[in-house]
Amino acid sequence: MTDNAEASGRGSEISKVELFLFTQEIANVAFDVNPGGIDMPGARAKRTRLGVAIETRDGARGEYIGGRSDTYLHAKFLARWILGMDAFGREQIYEIARRYLRKEDRIGACQIDNALWDLAGKRIGASVTQMLGGSPRRLPAYASTWFAGPGGGLASPEAFADFAEECYGLGYRAFKMHGWTDGGTENDIGAILALGKRVGGRMALMHDSACHLKTFGDAVLVGKACDEAGFFWYEDPYSDGGLAAHAHRRLREIIKTPILLGEHVRGVEAMANVLLLDGTDFVRADPDLDIGITGTMKIAHLAEALGLDVELHGNGPAHRHCMAAIRNTNFYELAMVGPSRGQAVNSIYASDYSDTLDAVGADGCFPVPEGPGLGVQYDWDFVRKNLVDHIVIE
């Protein structure tokens, strides 16, 4: 049987799915003070992570580590249904995930879809970027901060401005602040105005409330500060969860700063509803939240059809490959970062891939991995040494 025949025949049937739940030590981030995490020198924490490996009858293998670990049982449920399916049939598997995980927001399908893209690329010797029709390029990045909190490295409006200056010196030409989570507006407004005064005109600036502002009125006050400081976008302003299209349409009529929604809106159909009701200016998508690379590209094409830009949430190799194949996008999010250099997850790579703050190039960009599939190698020895649970489905 030829390679092409083997790839499209029985040899490409999924024969095994492995799920790895493991822990990592995280330094300089406090999750006990705020569940979103604040920059805190000397703090220690543990985070649980999820890895997926998929194999076919002909020995092809795809791997992915990332996304939310609390989707472990959802991924386990879906894995049993895709056994025996064609590993190249990602659209069919996407459709199954949409239906079978509809009550779980389908997030448990993300790692599986991303691993399938890695498998296909390795099997045919092409990068995910190439399979998506893109080409390797340097990705302009923004530094996306931890939340603010007392005693941490981002405890005042001035600390945000100082850190933005530091990021500018590293090469970043864009900066996003996550503010205070107490529901107030005074500190957020102070930081917005301090950033505008200190680095406005030199860096594209963004504010992400992460839905912590409590009322529409608070969202208006912070939005007007973004106007004054010339911010590039204003993200998930208040506690509706980014779902109330009518309210955000009204907010867009009151302030000038473009709105960005979608981090908490799952899937292309739900995102279409927000867009067609004029709820947002920029569109969010995420391979770790929107049924993987497959779902992310559907949202990107939806935004393109409406003449809007899509901004990818979070970072990782899947995100870089998607961005390299999307015309209507602006920045790669380097999240979550602070002056203490603690990040949400530590490296799990056995290759030179890095998403650390200081890994940015002097041009303010990150590269797209160029090897087959996702183009990265994971440190599976580390994963196995730190296992919490391991399931083999075959």
What does this entry show, briefly?
This protein is α/β, with parallel strands linked by helices and 394 residues long. Helices cover 35% and strands 22% of the residues. It has 2 domains: 3-125 and 377-393, Enolase-like, domain 1, CATH 3.30.390.10; 131-366, TIM Barrel (Alpha-Beta Barrel).
Written account of the structure:
The two termini are 24 Å apart. The chain is of the alpha/beta class and 394 residues long. The protein has two domains: 3-125 and 377-393, Enolase-like, N-terminal domain (Enolase-like, domain 1, 2-Layer Sandwich); 131-366, Enolase-like C-terminal domain (TIM Barrel), CATH 3.20.20.120. Residues 1-7 have low confidence and may be disordered. The protein has helices at residues 3-8, 72-82, 90-100, 110-124, 128-131, 157-170, 186-199, 216-229, 245-254, 267-276, 292-305, 317-324, 380-385; strands at residues 14-30, 38-56, 61-65, 139-145, 174-178, 204-208, 233-235, 259-261, 282-285, 310-312, 332-337, 365-366, 387-393.
